Description:
By secondary structure, the chain is α/β, with parallel strands linked by helices.
Amino acid sequence: MRWLIMLGFALAFATGAQGAPMAEQGSGPYPALFEMRADLPDHVVYRPKALARLGAHKLGIYVFGNGGCSDDGTASRNHLLEIASHGYLVIAPGHIPDGKTRDRPAPSGKLTAQTPTGALSEAIDWAQRENGRRGSPFHGRVAVDQIAVSGWSCGGLQALSVAQEPRVKTAIIMNSGYFNDGVSPIAGITSDKAMLARLHSPILYILGGPADIAWPNGTDDFRRINHVPAALVNVPVGHGGTYMQPHGGIGGQMATAWLDWQLRGSKAAARQFTGKDCGFCRDGRLTIETKNMP
């Protein structure tokens, strides 16, 4: 079965790119775009197109590990554009595909992450730095203390590692979880259930139901977490999630609501997750469990 797990992680990013529609702008109040920037090499930045329209609104920070730890920073673009359109600065490691071949590490007998876990931390550093840099288009526009980490599949493992940084306020782990045997088949990627005890902020798992190859891992993670608020959502679509559905599908909707609650303190967003009649509790597209919630 381990080879099936490795295959699932290897294919996670490829399924998002094949036959994908043209990039959207998101459904939020700030139509979004994605770009590469010379001041942040090896990352793709998603942001509202018209930053001047933000007014007094400041951009929360959402960094996202790609499926397969791929260096295609656009493989989940509909999901990421959706979140950016709701007033977030979204950053994924990697590049916008241009058809060029880039150097790859030599085979090691394992799958090899094309982007390092540290790239997520670098993205946070850059966003905080740009907020204070005069002349930056982001100067004074970033909520430097509103930081979320997220990721899909292999990228979710990267997010779990970075979630332990003190400055991170919440994490969204999608179609992922530490391997139940504690051994990572991906070179450069940590998998250690003991690290769950180091989480210090609310966490949301979004899984694809029993057909999701990461379902056993993410479900086991959730069962072990007893010291911070946590939610476990299953959307029965398998490992591929809803990233490239219009506006990122239900996954994008849930991630946006979670961010609005955890980073902005939105009471309306909180009601989507809390209480016996919570909004997502009544949504027939998914199931939800919570623990340690206020």
